[in-house]
Design a protein that fits this description.
4 copies of one chain form a homotetramer. By secondary structure, chain A is an alpha/beta fold. Chain A is built from 7 helices and 7 strands. Chain A has helices at 15-25, 37-47, 59-73, 96-121, 145-165, 207-210, 216-228; strands at residues 5-9, 29-34, 50-53, 78-81, 127-134, 170-177, 237-240. In chain A, strands 3-2-1-4-5-6-7 form a 7-stranded parallel β-sheet, sandwiched between helices. In chain A, helix 3 packs parallel to helix 4 (96-121) and helix 4 runs parallel beside helix 5. The radius of gyration of chain A is 17 Å and the shape is globular. Chains B and C meet through helix 4 and helix 5 of B and helix 4 and helix 5 of C.
Chain lengths: 247, 247, 247, 247
C-alpha cells in the first residue's frame, strides 16, 4: 500500500481521537493504541482505524506495539505520544512510589516512543514525531509538582530531539495544550474557560460550534497543519488555547 | 463584494509577497503597501493585488493607508505588519538619533497598524492581526541592541494584544522567523543555513525545491495555517526555522 | 578620592532611594538624578548623596548629566536606569503621540544611559549597568500594551548588552520587579500582595518588618548582591517578588 | 545549639564544597552527603563539616539521611540538592534502562529531598531548598535528551515548589549553572570558557584569581546571596555564567 501510516499512543475520544479522524480523512492508515483494547475498539472502528493494546508505562509494551504496527500497517510516518499521568496534591502528601511511577510512565514512555519512531524514520529521512503537552509543560503550578516534572521532562526531550533529528528530516513537535479540553459532545456555552471545563454537559452540537470551543477537533486542525509544514519552515513547539482562555 | 480583504504593510518580494500570493489564491482581495510605489507595483500586479504607498514610520501615513484601503477594497479582515528597521553595531558607535527613529518606526508603526486594524475588526467581532518577528524578537544579540529593542517591543505589543483582543474574536499572531530567508529565485544547495543565506545565487528552481529551504513560500504556508486556526484553538506565537537551521 | 562613584537615574524614594542608601553605606559616592531637583534634594541630602537634575526622556539631558557627574564625582562605576513611563488603557483609546513619547523615553533613555555608562567603563574594563524592569518586561498584559512595549524593549537592550559587554568586564543586569512595591513608611500587614499595594497606609514600622514586605529595602539587597557577584559567576537577569506574591 | 543546620546532598569538591565552606564560615553546622563516604570524609573534615553516606538514587536512603542528620545536627534550615546523572548520546543508542534510572535518580531524588526538607521546615515557617541546575535545565541539546529530561523535570519541580512553599515562608531556588565549572586548583588562563574547562591544569592560584573564572567559589557567593535574600524580595531562579561565557 502506498498510504502512509500513523500511530497514536494513548488514544481516546479527545485530541488523539480527533487527530486520528483527521489523519484517516487525509488518507493515512491509522493505528490507535491504548491500555484498554475493549474501550478503544469502538472508537477505532468508528473512524476507520485499527486498535492495538499497549501500556505506555512499559517500555517493552511500546517496543512490541511498534512491531505489531509494522506488521499490520507498515512503519508509521507519523507518531503521536499523547498520554500523561496526572497527579495532584501538596508536597507532603505525595506518595513517592506513585510519583516515581507517574514520572516514569510519562517521561520514559515518551522516550521509548521517540526511539522506536526514529528507528523507523531515520533510514527514510522523513517522518513526524508529536508530543501532546499541557500548561504544566511550561509552568509548574503549586500542588502539581509531580505532573509538572513529567511534562517538563517530555518538553526537554522534545526540544533535544527537535535539534537532533531535524537535520535528518524528522519533524519533532511539542504541543502545549493550554486549558481544559471539551469532552465529546460537550455544549459550548462556556467553551474554553478552564474552570467550567469540568462541568460541561452533554448536548447535541454542530461541528461548527465545536470549533468555537477548546475542542479536540479545533486542536486537531493545528496538529494537521504542523504535519503539513514544509521542512523549509518548521515549528518545534505550538501553544494552543481557546480565544476565551486567559493566559 | 463578499471577498474578504487583506492588507500587508511593508510588502516586498519576501515573506509578505509569498503570503500575499497565498491570500489571493485563497480568494482574498489583497492590498500591498510599501514606501516605494514604483518598485511595489510590478509585484502587486504580478499576483493580482493592489499596491498602495505608505510609510510605516509615519503614524499619519498608516492611518491614511487604512482609509485608502477601506475605500478601495473595504476594511481588511487580515492585516500583516511586516517591516522592521534593522541596525547593527556596537554600543559606542550607535547614532542615538538613528536608533530612536529605528525603534520608533518599528514599534510605533506596529502599534498604529494594530490600532487601525482593531478599529475595523472589533465591531465585526473577527479578524487577524499578524506581526513578522525575527530571532532578535526573543534573543538580544551582541552588537544588535537597537534591532533587539524594536523587535522585543513588537513582541510585547503582540502578546498584550493577543490577551486583550482574543476574547473579542480577534486573532493576534507573532511569527518568529528564526534564520535568514531565501531570496527570490535563490538556489537551495545551502538553503536555510543562516550564514550562506546572504550568498545564495540566482537560479531557476522548482516550487517543490523552494519549500525545502527557508523560503518565503515555506513560511507563508504557516501564515495561512495560522489564519485557518478555528478560534477554539489559537496560537499567539509561532517560531519557524528551516530543518537545517541550528538553534 | 578612591571611593567609587554611582549614578542613579530616575531616582525617588522607592527602589532607587533604597539602593542609593545601600551604596552610600557601602562607601560609594552617589549621584541621584531626577527631573524635579527640588523634590529630589531632601532625599539626596538625607542619604548623603548629591542631587542632579536630568530628564530621562531627553538624550541630550542624559549626556549632560554624565558630564556633570564626571566633574563632581568622577565617572561612575555603577549606573542604574530606573524610570519608566507607565501608560494603561485599551488599544483603541491609546493616544499615539503620548504612546510614542512613552516608548521613546523608556527605551531611548535606557539606550543613551547605557552608552554613556559604557563609554566610561570600557576603558577601565569594569563597571555595572543596571536596569529596573517590571512584570511587564516579560509578560504583556491586556490593556497595557504601551507599557509592555517600553519594558520589553529595555529587556532586549539589556540582554544584548549583557552579551556584548560581559567579555569586556562590564556587568549588565536587568531586574524584573514582579509586584507592587511598598511605599515609604507603608505598613506591612498585606505586604507584597499586588492588589493591596496601592492602599497601604502610613505607619511607623521597623526595618526588620520592612524586609518582610516587597519593600525598596528588601529589593535593594539583591541589587547590592548583584553588584558583589564576582565576574566568574554573573547573572544577567534577576526576578524578584515577595514571598506572598502569586506568579 | 543555636547554630542553624545545613545539608548538602551530592557533595563533592565543586559547587557543593564551596557552598559548604561558605556556610561553615557563616556559622552553619554543615552536613555533607555522598555515596562514597571514604572520598567525602577528607573534604568534610577539611571544612569543618560532618560527612554522611547517602545514595541520591534511593528514596529510602534519602529519608534515612534526613533522620541521621536530625539526630546529629538537628533539622536543617538549608538543603541543597546537587547531584545529577549526566548521560550523553544520540537517540538510537540510548539504553532505555540506564536512561530510566538516570531520570529517576535525578528527578525522584530531588522530589524526595524536597519532601523531607519541607517536612522539617513547614512547621517552623522558614527554610531554604536549593537545586543545582545546568544549561540543560532550560535548553535541550541534541544528543543530550536524557540529561535534559532529568534537568527539565527538576526545574518543573522547583518552580512548582517555589509557588507552593513561598507563602509558607520557605524559599525554593533553582540555580542554572551555565557553563563548565573550574576544577579544584585549576588555572584560570581560560577560566569560564566552556571548551577549555575540561583541560584546565593544576596550579597554585590565589582566591582572587579563582573568582575570575567560573569557579565553585564564585558560584557559591550567589548561593549565599540567595540565602540572604529577605523574604520580601525573593528570586526563585538564578542563572549564573562566567563573564567570558557566550550565551
Amino acid at each position: 500500500m502506498s498510504q502512509p501510516g500513523a500511530l497514536i499512543i494513548g488514544a481516546g475520544p479527545g485530541i488523539s481521537g480527533a487527530f486520528g479522524s483527521a489523519l484517516v480523512a487525509a488518507g493515512y492508515r491509522v493505528a490507535l493504541a491504548a491500555r484498554n483494547l475493549e474501550r478503544l475498539r469502538p472508537l477505532a472502528t468508528g473512524m476507520g482505524a485499527t486498535a492495538f493494546a499497549a501500556d505506555a508505562s512499559s517500555p517493552a509494551s511500546i517496543v512490541q506495539l511498534f512491531s505489531d504496527v509494522d506488521a499490520a500497517l507498515g512503519p508509521p510516518e507519523v507518531v503521536l505520544f499523547n498520554p500523561s499521568a496526572r497527579m495532584r496534591g501538596e508536597l507532603l502528601g505525595i506518595d513517592i512510589e506513585l510519583a516515581a511511577s507517574a514520572i516514569q510512565s510519562t517521561a520514559v514512555g515518551a522516550l521509548v516512543t521517540a526511539q522506536e519512531a526514529a528507528r523507523r524514520m531515520l533510514p527514510r529521512g522523513r517522518g513526524s514525531i508529536f508530543f501532546t503537552g499541557a500548561t504544566a509543560s511550561i509552568k509548574g503550578f503549586a500542588s502539581s509538582s509531580v505532573f509538572a516534572m513529567g511534562k517538563f521532562a517530555v518538553r526537554g526531550l522534545a526540544q533535544s530531539l527537535a535539534r537532533e533529528l531535524a537535520p535528518a528530516g524528522i519533524h519533532v513537535v511539542h504541543f502545549v495544550i493550554d486549558g481544559g479540553v471539551l469532552k465529546d459532545g460537550g455544549t459550548l456555552k462556556d467553551g474554553g474557560a478552564r474552570k467550567e471545563a469540568g462541568t460541561l454537559k452533554e448536548g447535541g452540537i454542530e461541528q461548527g460550534e465545536r470549533l468555537e470551543g477548546f475542542s479536540p477537533e479545533a486542536i486537531a486542525k493545528s496538529y494537521m497543519a504542523a504535519l503539513a509544514q514544509p521542512r523549509g519552515a518548521w515549528s518545534w513547539e505550538l501553544e494552543l488555547r481557546s480565544f476565551k482562555e486567559p493566559f
